[in-house]
Design goal:
Blueprint (H helix, E strand, L loop, with lengths): L5 H11 L3 E4 L1 H15 L6 E6 L6 H9 L3 E4 L2 H9 L5 E3 L6 H9 L3 E4 L2 H13 L6 E5 L26 H13 L3 E6 L9 H17 L7 E5 L18 H12 L3 H6 L2 E4 L3 H4 L3 E13 L2 E6 L3 H4 L10 E4 L7 E7 L8 E9 L6 E5 L19 E4 L4 E5 L4 H5 L4
Parallel strand pairs: 1-16, 2-3, 2-9, 3-4, 4-5, 5-6, 6-7, 7-8, 8-9, 11-13
Antiparallel strand pairs: 1-10, 10-11, 10-15, 12-15, 13-14, 16-17
Helix pairs in contact: 2-9, 8-9
Bound molecules: pyridoxal-5'-phosphate.
The site of pyridoxal-5'-phosphate (PLP) has 15 residues, from helix 11.
Length: about 400
């Protein structure tokens, strides 16, 4: 953003306090638009189900709603949020959907992708007691994400993933659903991988097609590939060797458009992007307080915290910029550490920065995914979020207050 400099950050700090998040709605819109247009020249029937869990700031979700995205939710809380925000089109995934919320979702026309026998039971019971209702559900399938060398690509190197039904389970599940006259309208193959490689999607899509054919799934309207894509890298992250939206779109479409079952049924291709559309939509600004040297090691302390920028505590340094009041050519290697009392509150490790004084700022980029939704009220109040365009600044979340905290307790 052109307008970001020391005095701009200082102005915002004076008005809203520090730390604070900056949100770039135009970037989010552009990411979603670009992902869609990677598919549409070859296949029009494409749906983006925005993954709420990745970042459900309501203002942001409102943008995806206006752009025609579906809400992809995985819990009662997210489902209720999507309904509250006015989403009519919702995809309900996740391993636990209790009966009342599952039935509510079915009645509202939500695309519910079942993940367990408990859910299958609930749906069949409901259909039995409401024989005239058109009950439509989806099935999450368990994908064997093993490459040609026999190694698993599942997230964290896990040998198998735990979500969805295996082929063996599907035999029982599909028989039961068909006997109960429940329509199977969606197949869902989301599988999180560590490498987010394009080739994973070839494996996923092939297995999904195989299941549709093996079980004669004639009513499929949604061919839901899930999320887990790469994209939306923050400035400063080298993404030159990473896949682009179009690489995924081409890999998926090359396979499905050459498949007879697919071109006969022409279901909507659903993608559920999270990280890949929101990672570069947020930055985090905190004030620098002091520089310390202890046993040869330099520390710079901010009023921000690692819990706000990478609550998963991964060890990668995110891209950052220091904004100082006076220019300094003197550089030091230091750890940028946070305001909590935890030794592990290390925001950046061994980074080179100019000499700072109290009141300088650090801006950390690429904090849009799995940050705000994962950040607890830990020691500090939750920070405000300021939406920034070329001409406007709008506060879309205020700072938490003591009243917010105590109102939950007796
Ligand atoms: C079912 C489902 N869809 C979409 C996503 C979004 O994944 P990502 O943020 O990696 O794109 C996830 C993440 O775990 C998921 O579980």
């Amino acid at each position: 953003m052109e307008q970001i400099d020391f005095s701009f950050l200082e102005e915002l700090a004076a008005k809203y306090g520090t730390p604070y998040y900056l949100m770039y709605p135009d970037v989010y819109e552009k990411n979603i638009g670009s992902f869609l247009s990677a598919f549409t020249p070859r296949y029009e029937n494409i749906i983006v189900g925005y993954s709420f869990k990745t970042n459900y700031v309501p203002y942001l979700c409102g943008i995806s709603l206006r752009m025609g995205c579906y809400a992809e939710v995985v819990s009662t809380m997210e489902y209720e949020l999507a309904r509250y925000l006015g989403f009519e089109h919702i995809i309900f995934n996740g391993p636990i959907k209790n009966k009342p919320i599952l039935i509510d979702a079915l009645k509202n026309g939500t695309i519910v992708n079942l993940d367990s026998l408990y859910e299958v039971d609930c749906v069949c019971e409901y259909k039995l007691s409401h024989p005239n209702d058109d009950v439509r559900i989806g099935l999450r399938v368990n994908i064997e994400l093993t490459d040609e060398m026999g190694s698993s690509r599942i997230q964290n190197g896990l040998r198998v993933g735990r979500f969805g039904f295996t082929l063996k389970m599907l035999e029982i599940v599909i028989r039961r659903l068909k006997q109960a006259d429940v329509n199977i309208i969606s197949i869902h193959g989301h599988t999180s991988s560590s490498d987010r490689a394009v080739s994973n999607y070839q494996i996923i899509v092939r297995q999904m097609l195989k299941i549709c054919k093996t079980f004669d799934l004639e009513d499929i309207e949604y061919f839901d590939i899930g999320g887990g894509f790469f994209g939306a890298a923050a400035k400063g992250i080298d993404a030159s060797h990473k896949p682009q939206y179009k690489d995924y779109a081409d890999a998926i479409l090359d396979i499905v458009l050459a498949d007879n079952w697919f071109i006969t049924h022409t279901p909507a291709v659903v993608i559920e992007p999270g990280v890949s559309v929101v990672a570069n939509v947020f930055s985090y600004v905190s004030k620098l307080y002091q520089s310390k040297r202890i046993a040869g090691q330099n520390f710079i302390t901010t009023d921000g915290t690692v819990f706000d920028v990478k609550p998963t505590m991964h060890s990668n340094n995110l891209p950052f910029t220091i904004y100082t009041q006076t220019e300094s050519t003197q550089l030091i290697i230091c750890d940028i550490v946070g305001s909590t009392c935890m030794e592990k509150d290390i925001i950046l490790k061994d980074v080179e920065v100019p000499k700072i004084q109290f009141g300088d700022y650090i801006l950390i980029d690429g904090v849009g995914a799995y940050t705000i939704t994962l950040t607890p009220t830990f020691i500090n109040y939750l920070s405000p979020i300021l939406s920034l365009t070329e001409n406007t600044v709008q506060q879309v979340r205020r700072r938490q207050t003591i009243n917010d905290i105590i109102s939950l307790y007796k």
